[in-house]
Write a structure and sequence with these properties.
alpha/beta, eight-stranded mixed beta sheet
C-alpha cells in the first residue's frame, strides 16, 4: 500500500505510546494518532511519514472504544497535560501496568514469567483529580474578539484591544490555552489566577512576549501543602520588581491559605521557568507539608511522618497522596532493621532520605543542587533527625569518590542499601558501576521512566543482582506517565536468574 501525506486511513487502535498516542497498523506499517485510545476504530489523516512508521491526525471515531469516556475538561485535546483523559480510569491503570511490564521485558531482557511472578498490582487513586500540589501557569496576551467572531487589535502588549490570559501551553507548542480551572490542580488555583489577572489589568502590568523578549510577567507558580493547607504564590518576572507591589500583596494576602508571596527574577531568553533569584514580598519564605509513613500492606497510617519545608525552587513530588504510598513502598523494600547504612542518591530536599533515617542507622544523601541540600539539612534538623548526612554533587561523582577514598584508606566503603531516584534519563553509568563495586545487599530504585529503569536494571542484574519486587504507582493520573519502585537483591553473578 503506497501512502502519502493527507491520505485518509482506517485504523484499529491496538496500543498506546509512552506519550499517550494511539497506535494502529496497516499491513505492518505503524501509525501514531493523538487523542485515539485502545479499542477505537478511527479514520485518521496522514500528517507525516517515516520509513517504518507515520503520524496521523484523528478525523473521525467510527466505533468508539468500550473504554472511551466523555473527558470532563473541555481543553484536554488542546492541552498537552492530560493525554489519556478520554480513557476510563481503570483502563488507564491497566495501560500503565502493561507499559512498565513491557519495558522490563523488551528493554530489560527479563522473562515475562519472571515479571509476572514478582510484579504487584499498580497503586491507583481513589480520586484521580485535583491531586497536583504545584502548577506553573504561563502568562500571556491574546486579541479581544469584536463580538462577531473576529479579532481586533494590532498593537500588541499595551493595546486596550488585547487582554492578559493565564493557562497552559498547547501540546508541543508555546501557545497559551486560556484556562484558570485545571481539573488536576487544587481548587484554590482558579481564585488565585483570576485575582492575579485582575491585578495585572487594573495596574496595567504587561505580560512577557517570548518572541520579542519584552513584557514583565512570565509565569505564576502556585504550591500548596496538602497537610498544612499553606499556599505559596511566586511570580516569575522579566525584571527586578512588580509594579504596585502593595496592591498585589493586598490581593494575595486575602486569599484563604496563602501565606507566602514572592517574585522569581528571570531575565534570560530561555525555556527554563524559574529564575535563580527569589525575593519574598510578603509572608513566609517557605511553606510546610507533611508526608506520612504508611503501612505498605494496606497503606494505612503508621503514626509516623516527616515534615518538609518547601521553597519555590524545591523539588517535591507533585502528587502528595500517591507520594506517601510511593515512599512508604520504597521504605518497605529497603528492609531496614535499624542497623543499616543507606545511601540515597538524587535525594532532592531529603524526602526519601528522612523516611529512611527513621529506620536506619545512618543515611547519606547526595544531590547536585546546593539549595536542595540546604533544604535537606534544614528538614533533618526540624524533624530531630541526626543520623542523616548530605553531600552536594553529582551522584556519579560523589559515590565513586567516596568508594575510592575509603578503599585507599584501607576501609570498606559500606552500604547495606542504596536507594536511587534519578531524573528521567536514569542513572549515570559511573554511578551504576560504583553500586556494583560496593555490592549493597539491596538496591531500591524509584523511577519516573520505566524505559530507562529497565535499561539500568539490566546492567545491575548482569553485575550480580536479582530483581525481587516491582510495583507501579500512578502519580500522574490522566497522563501517559507512571512512577514505579523496584527492589533488587545481591546474589552474586553465579547465582542470579
Amino acid at each position: 500500500m503506497q501512502l502519502k501525506k493527507n491520505d485518509l486511513v482506517n485504523l484499529t487502535i491496538e496500543d498506546m505510546s509512552a506519550d499517550g498516542e494511539g497506535i494502529g497498523k496497516i499491513d505492518g506499517f505503524t501509525f501514531f494518532v493523538k487523542d485515539a485510545i485502545i479499542g477505537d476504530f478511527i479514520v485518521a489523516r496522514v500528517t507525516k511519514l517515516k520509513k517504518t512508521y507515520g503520524y496521523g491526525r484523528l478525523e473521525k471515531i467510527v466505533t468508539p472504544s468500550e473504554h472511551r469516556v466523555e473527558a470532563p475538561c473541555a481543553f484536554h485535546k488542546q492541552c498537552g497535560g492530560c493525554q489519556i483523559q478520554a480513557m476510563d480510569y481503570a483502563q488507564q491503570l491497566k495501560f500503565k501496568q502493561n507499559k512498565v511490564f513491557n519495558n522490563l521485558v523488551r528493554i530489560g531482557g527479563f522473562s515475562a514469567d519472571c515479571i509476572k511472578e514478582i510484579m504487584e498490582p499498580i497503586v491507583g487513586m481513589e480520586n484521580p483529580y485535583h491531586y497536583r500540589n504545584k502548577a506553573q501557569f504561563p502568562i500571556g496576551m491574546r486579541k479581544v474578539s469584536d463580538g462577531a467572531g473576529g479579532l481586533v487589535g494590532t498593537n500588541g502588549v499595551g493595546d486596550d484591544k488585547w487582554e492578559v490570559i493565564a493557562g497552559f501551553y498547547a501540546g508541543r507548542t508555546h501557545h497559551i490555552i486560556a484556562n484558570t480551572d485545571c481539573l488536576l490542580g487544587v481548587a484554590e488555583n482558579q481564585e488565585i489566577l483570576e485575582k492575579f489577572l485582575d491585578y495585572m489589568r487594573e495596574n496595567k502590568v504587561s505580560a512577557y512576549d517570548e518572541e520579542t523578549g519584552r513584557g514583565l510577567v512570565r509565569h505564576l507558580l502556585i504550591r500548596k501543602g496538602f497537610a498544612s493547607g499553606e499556599i505559596m504564590v511566586c511570580v516569575v518576572i522579566n525584571g527586578d520588581r512588580m509594579p504596585a507591589e502593595e496592591s498585589l500583596i493586598s490581593v494575595m494576602s486575602k486569599v484563604k491559605g496563602v501565606v507566602s508571596l514572592s517574585i522569581s527574577i528571570n531575565k534570560e531568553n530561555t525555556n527554563v521557568i524559574m529564575g535563580k533569584t527569589i525575593r519574598t514580598l510578603w509572608g513566609k519564605d517557605k511553606i510546610k507539608d507533611t508526608i506520612r509513613i504508611l503501612n505498605a500492606e494496606d497503606f494505612s497510617p503508621s503514626g509516623d511522618s516527616v515534615e518538609f519545608s518547601i521553597s519555590p525552587l524545591s523539588f517535591y513530588q507533585v502528587n502528595p497522596v500517591q507520594t506517601e504510598k510511593l515512599y512508604s513502598l520504597a521504605l518497605d523494600y529497603a528492609g531496614l532493621s535499624g542497623k543499616e547504612t543507606v545511601w540515597d542518591l538524587y535525594c532532592g530536599i531529603g524526602t526519601i532520605s528522612l523516611f529512611l533515617a527513621r529506620r536506619a542507622s545512618k543515611v547519606y544523601g547526595v544531590e547536585i543542587i546546593a539549595d536542595a541540600i540546604r533544604d535537606a539539612k534544614e528538614n533533618a534538623v526540624n524533624n530531630g533527625i541526626d543520623n542523616a548526612e548530605f553531600f552536594v554533587g553529582k551522584a556519579e561523582e560523589v559515590l565513586p569518590e567516596f568508594y575510592e577514598r575509603e578503599k585507599a584508606a584501607g576501609r570498606a566503603a559500606t552500604a547495606d542499601v542504596i536507594v536511587v531516584d534519578p531524573p528521567r534519563k536514569g542513572c549515570d553509568a559511573m554511578c551504576l558501576d560504583t553500586i556494583l563495586k560496593m555490592q549493597p545487599k539491596r538496591v531500591v530504585y524509584v523511577s519516573c521512566d520505566s524505559a530507562t529503569l529497565a535499561r539500568d536494571l539490566k546492567i545491575l542484574c548482569e553485575g550480580g543482582y536479582e530483581l525481587k519486587k516491582v510495583r507501579a504507582v500512578d502519580q500522574f493520573a490522566h497522563t501517559g506517565h507512571v512512577e514505579c519502585v523496584i527492589m533488587m537483591q545481591y546474589c552474586g553473578k553465579d547465582k542470579k536468574k
